[in-house]
């Protein structure tokens, strides 16, 4: 499996999520490098999307993020 870059991720979000469901006012994510990169940060600023990052080393927040991701994946199918 090939690895994804921050630029790839931004393009995937725009093409597959934002174009079909509109722009969110905010995105909640953990602190994975893809979501804290300058490319992702700049793209969110351009689109006026605030980013809410979970607290580092806070498993409860990461668990909440993972649960929301599962719900979104199910909803988007």
UniProtKB/TrEMBL annotation:
Query: What name appears for this protein in its UniProt entry?
Result: Integrase catalytic domain-containing protein
Q: Which GO terms describe its cellular component?
A: nucleus
Which UniProt key words apply to this protein?
Answer: RNA-binding
Q: Which Gene3D superfamilies match?
A: Ribonuclease H-like superfamily/Ribonuclease H (3.30.420.10)
Q: What PANTHER family does the database record attribute to this sequence?
A: PROTEIN CBG26694, PROTEIN NYNRIN-LIKE
- Domain Integrase catalytic, chain residue ranges per copy: 1-77
Residues crossing the lipid bilayer are none
Which biological process, per GO, is one annotated for this protein?
Answer: DNA integration
Q: Name one GO molecular function term.
A: RNA binding
């Amino acid at each position: 499996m090939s690895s994804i870059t921050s630029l790839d991720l931004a393009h995937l979000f725009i093409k597959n999520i934002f174009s079909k469901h509109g722009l969110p006012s905010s995105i909640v994510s953990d602190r994975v490098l893809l979501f804290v990169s300058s490319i992702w940060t700049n793209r969110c600023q351009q689109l006026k999307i605030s980013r809410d990052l979970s607290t580092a080393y806070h498993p409860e927040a990461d668990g909440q993020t993972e649960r929301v991701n599962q719900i979104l994946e199910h909803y988007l199918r």
